[in-house]
Amino acid sequence: MSSSATVEIINFGDELLVGIRANAHLEYLGAELARFGLPVQRARVICDSPDEIRAAFSEAMTRSDLVIMTGGLGPTADDLTRETIAEVLGAELIHDADVEAAIKEYFRVIDRPMAAHHRRQCFVLKGGEVLPNERGTAPGLYYQTKGKTLVLLPGPTQELRPMFERELVPRLRRDGFLRDAASFVQVRTSGCGESSIEACLQDIIAAEPDLQVAFCAHYGIVDVRLSSREGHLDAADLERISRAVAEECGDHFFCFGKGSLAEVVHYELRKMGRTLAVAESCTGGMLSDAFTNISGASKTFIGGIVCYSNEVKVSQVDVPESILMQHGAVSPECAIAMAAGVAEQLGSHYGLSVTGFAGPEGGDKKNPVGTMHLGYHSPVGVWSKTVRYTGGRLDVKARAVHAALDWMRRKLLKYKAEEQGACGGLN
Amino acid sequence: MSSSATVEIINFGDELLVGIRANAHLEYLGAELARFGLPVQRARVICDSPDEIRAAFSEAMTRSDLVIMTGGLGPTADDLTRETIAEVLGAELIHDADVEAAIKEYFRVIDRPMAAHHRRQCFVLKGGEVLPNERGTAPGLYYQTKGKTLVLLPGPTQELRPMFERELVPRLRRDGFLRDAASFVQVRTSGCGESSIEACLQDIIAAEPDLQVAFCAHYGIVDVRLSSREGHLDAADLERISRAVAEECGDHFFCFGKGSLAEVVHYELRKMGRTLAVAESCTGGMLSDAFTNISGASKTFIGGIVCYSNEVKVSQVDVPESILMQHGAVSPECAIAMAAGVAEQLGSHYGLSVTGFAGPEGGDKKNPVGTMHLGYHSPVGVWSKTVRYTGGRLDVKARAVHAALDWMRRKLLKYKAEEQGACGGLN
Fold first, then answer.
1. Rounded to whole angstroms, how far apart are CA atoms B298 and B277?
2. In this structure, are residues B17 and B24 in contact, taking their beta carbons and an 8 Å threshold?
3. Is the pTM above the cut of 0.95?
4. ipTM of the prediction
5. B-contacting residues of A 102-161, CB under 8 Å?
């Protein structure tokens, strides 16, 4: 199987079609496969009906080399994948004693009896390889027929991911689907619009006829994705081009790959041996959360205060009552007091704060809904910045968090030398 | 057009296929259309290539009545939707003076010149209705041909959502696609496994031959989705059945629809006129964030402290150093001290806390990675609870947040009468 195999993902689940949940499996599988040089070309979500499963599966097996299906392997009556696939393939479902033993062992460990309906899960496609499920009851399957490869994975995230890593990746590698280098490179930028970024990259793009460039904008971040249209650019070429792109983007560039703005701030602080605390009003914990998603965050991030009420702003981060009275809680003055106050209270070198109206209620003439004031305290001074966004409450929160992180990132880069002096240096 | 129209959504964007972003558009559009009685049957994600656009679009127009496509309408060279669709339909792209005027006005307001590449966005399919874009430059389109309806929406979330609400919904209603009642009902439960929930609903399911039931489990929550297989059950029937399902689920039931555990806790507190503060270590702001995603959260949620370091646990939430020394920061004793301390410090009636090891690093023999201790302080006492999860760092955080919210919800229901007495009641 060549590394230019076409890959299609089919996710089952009504809940993905009627807006109950986002499709995290596609995000995960897409990222993992791309990392191994196998980008997904097509994906679809279908409801749990045998007709839809039959149609989607037949079509996918016709036009794609590798078809990965997720979900529908559970013990409940709406889990119909196994039976429907067997019917389409004309393959037999046979009882697998090892699978039954594994399911029994699973229930023994969690100290519950194995219910009768789990017996359905012991049947697998004859001629396929069973992918053991170490975190649940539904086994996965790897099945090859007429030059096509079919993979069935269970729906729950905590079962799918370990099975993908431990069971599926080795088989895909064995059968020649995976390469070691990524087939695309991503350059992340923040604080500049999509078409401006494209405009400044015109010369680079024009010089590389086989270069495919895609832009993706979200919450103030613009990602530039570089890949080879016809495969004439190898990993080293893409690396070279991505460096040129990053240079052209200047201060807007913040990392290659999937790293977050919080990670960039964290690594900068870590290099300097400095710590950060945050104070949040309207973003309500989302800024703290961005840091604590980083494994090892405790080396730079010591904590945060969500001062949602005015009383908590006064009692926990020492915002002077006079500021609240004169300027209000949604003001540059309050943002600065919060940033300086939280750094002082928690004993960190840096403080970062957000206060504003996330909507849909609140806001006034001076500060309409969507207005956010950011505050920044560093060893060499304090600053404020005001931003304004449209959109729903969660969108405004997410944009404000990105804005605060990007602002701190730029300040850190600009004042780094000065601040190391002010803190007494590292050596 | 009957209300049983088949609906298909096509999302463009390489970033959705290689794991850079989750498909939030599908989640949003699916939820909105289902709310109006028009559940989506099929969805697919394709990359920005003319061949893929052509294939997916032709197929969708053959088998679905309404096809909604998102993305690919931007000004950059990788935005190919408009041109490819026109080619497939054999339709003409014509310059629209109103669209050009709107784009010029957009740039006038944000005080930037209109760049030459935005001129492409002024071309629309001849015979279609333009959907004005009040938040950006790319207009949407509503186009009917041979009994089929095609909708083009722009990719950025902040442009797509207002256009959907203000421009698309009225047209879909005019053309008979939308009903006023939802075609499915969701019953949300927490704290009980998927197959146990199914088992306890057997009698209800058996009594309704036309009832379609789907289960969806994520992070400790199991949603039960009820719909009518053949359309014999109307909204009143689904409502009646959903009430019976909720009753059968007992304490595990927490709400109908899309509400969150945080919302249930918020509404309970609001009814009692009580307030809450939270202290978080490993969940790092995610618990606070769950509350502040609720508009009007400030009526019950006064704030939170992210005490990531031991120093902050001592200085900000008054965890006694003796507890840290004897039991450690990851212990039931510390969780209780955090819950009581944050309520005391911030002046709330209730305190809720989480401390644990989210992984992948950390953990010890007594508290392996994934161990979380929850603490709860109420007017009538303090409690702790220990939970343990497998999975990645973000999964463990999300499960711990759900566990803490569900635990507080159950405690509130159990002790409500008693606590109202202890606080002096509301009247």
1. 11
2. no
3. no
4. 0.73
5. 115, 117-118, 135, 156-158, 161
